[in-house]
Amino acid sequence: MAAPKKARRPAGGPGGQSRPGRALALILIAMVALTGGMFWSGHTTPRLGIDLAGGTSITLKAKAEPGKEEAVNETNMNTAVGIIDRRVNGLGVSEAEVQTQGRENIIVNIPRGVNEKQAREQVGTTAQLHFRPVLTWAPGGPTTPTPSGSPTPSGSAKPSAEPSGSATPKAGTSATPSAGATQGRAVSEALKKAPSPSASGSATPDASKSPEPAATPPAADSADAKLQQQFAALDCTPKAEKAGAKKVVPNPARSVPAEQPTVACGAEGDAKYLLGPAEVDGRDVDEAQGTFDQQRGMWIVNMEFTDAGAKKFSKITSKLAQQQEPQNQFAIVLDGEVVSAPSVRTALSANAEISGSFTQQSAQDLGNILSYGALPLSFDTQSVDTVTAALGGEQLEAGLIAGAIGLALVVIYLVVYYRGLSLIALLSLGASALLTYVIMSLLGPAIGFALNLPAVCGAIVAIGITADSFIVYFERIRDEVREGRTLRPAVERAWPRARRTILVSDFVSFLAAAVLFVVTVGKVQGFAFTLGLTTLLDVVVVFFFTKPLMTLLARTKFYGDGHAWSGLDPKRLGAKPPLRRSRRAAAPAAGSVDPKEA
Question: Can you give the pTM of this predicted structure?
Fold first, then answer.
C-alpha cells in the first residue's frame, strides 16, 4: 500500500518571499543611506513654506508703455503670473505663491531661505531683450556736440581712436568711436534710415508731387538732431535717487518702443550708446544658459535662436559685418540697459553669446530669465514686506496636536484589536515616517520643496492610508487562520490577495493626488505632492518591510503557535480544524482497500 504524500508547505507561494531577510536588509540599507545623505548635505530638517517659516512678500504694479494703457489686461497679467511663477518655483513645489490682486497688481510670496535680493531680481526683471545696431558710443559722462554733429566729451578733445578702458563697451568689444565729421554724417545717415519718433510716413520725399524737398526730411532731420542732442546730454554716471540710497544707472531706453532709435546706458554706466531700431528681440531666443568660458576665464550667457530668429539675426549681422567701427557693433539691450556690445566681423545665424562682467549667479540668472521669456508688461515694485510665521506656527501646532490625537487613536485601536500584530504595524509606521521625513528634507535643496500647512495635512492623511494597508494584510492572514491553516502557510497564501487590494487602493490615491497636483496651484499642490509621495512610500514599506517582517515573525513561537496576545489565536478567531488532518481522513489513495470492507 502506497503511503500518502505529505502536504508541502507553501514556503514561497504566489508572491511570497522565501528569503525575507534580503528584502529587509535592502530597505534598511536604503534608509541608512538616505539618512546619511541627509546629514551629509547639512539639511536635517524639511524646508518650511512661508506660512510656517515666514518669508518675503513682494507687491508688483503693472505699468503700461505710453499710449498702450490697454496692455494692462487680464490676459497679459495671467501671462506675467505664469512666467514669474516658473522663475521662482522651478518644478512648481517650492511653495512660492504668485497671484494677481485686483486689475494691475501681482503678489509674490517667497518662503524664508530664498535670497531676497535674488528673488526681487527674478520677479521684477521684465527681461525685454532687444538686439539693436550701434550708431555711435561715448564715455558715460555728458558730451558736447561738435559743429559736425559728432559728440565730444565735455571738457576734453574729441574722442581718440583708442579710448581708455573705462570708455570701452562691456564684454571686451573691439569697437572704437570714429572722430569728426565722418562719424557725424554716418550717424545722421543711419538715423534717416530708421523710423523717427516724431516723423510720420516715409523719410524720403515724393518727387512726383513737388520738386522741392517735402516736409518730412526736415522733420526727420529735426528728430535726428534732437536725438543726438539727447545723446550728448545723457549722463550715465550712477546716481542715488535720495540720500543714503543705492546708486543706480539711468535708464532712458526702458520705455522707448523697439521700432524707434534711442539712447541707452551701459549696465555699469561707463559708456553710453546711440542705438538704431531693434532687429531681433527676446521672443526669437529659443534657449539661453549661463556657462563658463574656459579659454577666456569668464562667465557668459549662450543663446540659441528659433528658426525665425536665426534668419533675422543672420540678416542683421550680414549688414553689420560690412560697416566700419563702431557701426559694425550690435548692442544686446536687456530692459533698456546695454549689457554687451560686441563687434560683428562675419555673418552669424543660430547662436550668440552675451559676455560681460558676469558672476556665476548673474550669468545663470540671466539665462534662466531669457529661457522662460520676457514679461509682457513692465512692473514697479510697490512694496517688499517681511512675513512672520506666528499665525502659521499656531496653526501648525494645532495641526500637530490633531495629528498626534489621531495617531494615538490608531495605536489604541491596533493594540486592542490586533494585539501582537500591532507591533508590526507600529514598526511599519515608524519606517514610513522616517523615510517621509528624510526624503522631504532632501527634496528641499534638490527641487525647492517646501513644507506648508496643506502638506502637513497630506502627511497626516497618509497615516490612515498606510494603516489601512496593514489592516488589509492582517485580515487576509486571519481569514486563512480561520480556514484551519497554520500561520506560516497562512502568511504566504494571504499575501497575493492582500497585495492586489493594496496596489489598487494606493493606485487610486496616487491618481487622485496626481490629478490634484496638475489642476491646482499654490498651497494645494503641496497637499497633493505630499499625498502622492507618502502613497508611493506606503507601497515600498508594505512590500519591503511589513511583508518580510511578518514572514520572519511567523517563524517564532509567540506568533507561530498562536499565543493569546499574538492577535492570531485560532480559538479567538473561531478557526476550523486543521486542514492537514482533514486531508489525511479524506478518500484513500488509489489501489488501497478500505479496512471496513476487508
Answer: 0.54
